[in-house]
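cache lookup: miss for this entity combination. No prior model stored, computing from scratch. Input as submitted by user K.M.:
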Amino acid sequence: MSEQKTTKIRRIISAIRDNDRFMVATHVHPDGDALGSLLGMKFILERLGKKADIFAQDKIPPEFDFLPQTRAIRSKPIQSAKYDAAILVDCGDFERVGDELAGFISGLPFIINIDHHVPNRPFGNISWVEQSACSTCEMLFDLCMSLSLAPDANLSSVLYTGLITDTGSFRFSNTNRRVLEVAAILVEMGADPVYLATQIYDSATPEKLKLLAQVLGTLQFHTGARIVTAELSRSMLANSSSSYMDSEGFINHLRSVKSADLAILFREVNDGLIHVSMRSREGIDVAKLAQRYGGGGHKQAAACRISGTLHAVRSMFVGEAVSYMN
Ligand code: AMP
Ligand code: MN
Ligand code: MN
């Protein structure tokens, strides 16, 4: 372990030991790593005899409902609550936690940031950012090891969830020997890989599949099929009686094309706001491209939000992506 990493972990451990009441929060539109690290941090704090309230501004996607204690997750701050410190997990930027939670957290005496994104602006009294970690859950596993805390079945399950979702089931470029070793230990400690994968990946509704069919109907290939794009409109959601959340994993279908170096999915969040998701092969840094539009993420998986109609944003951004690739 690098000296810098050891120092960061040591500082976080003493901040935890010195305080009692924690507020833990994660990013808007939480994914498996966001929820795994949110619940994981709560379980770790409770094992250390601390109090922890957990927060995620947006709804929990249904495929993660089965995770232990998701009912404890609140969407709004408790205005009367007194916390000694906040811990933000899986948030590349402070603002990623959402307006209302950010407003409340900025009034707290101490903020700890635990994350693995390409940072835009560093934040927090302690900021532990590990870009080489596959997930925030992998970092929490390191924290457990430094605390000599053996994960129980619940803690192992939530951390394993972050590992599989952020590595695309151990397929993306952030997968390495270390990640597989951590996964093996978590399985040994009680995470059930078949149960967890079934809950997360094989729990789609018929409506979700119908929505995917519509999105794939908008496929376009650019620059000799090196760029693959598709879109999701609000009317598709209405046609298939599905929700925006159902489309979380859709971009992976675009990146599965052999020739695709860059996959882009344009989703209409609401009238006039488009969420642009990107996935790339090694050598193409999409975090940089997303940062041009105030977004961010990782080199191989990033996103940003752009105002405009679906049509206008798609044609403008494809032009930008084509020149970015050249
Ligand atoms: P997505 O395509 O929405 O799954 O997001 C891909 C990656 O980019 C994830 O690691 C997110 O944490 C990050 N990300 C998504 N939306 C934003 C945003 N608006 N600003 C900064 N980072 C984002
Ligand atoms: Mn995340
Ligand atoms: Mn993550």
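stored under new cache key. The mean pLDDT is 97.
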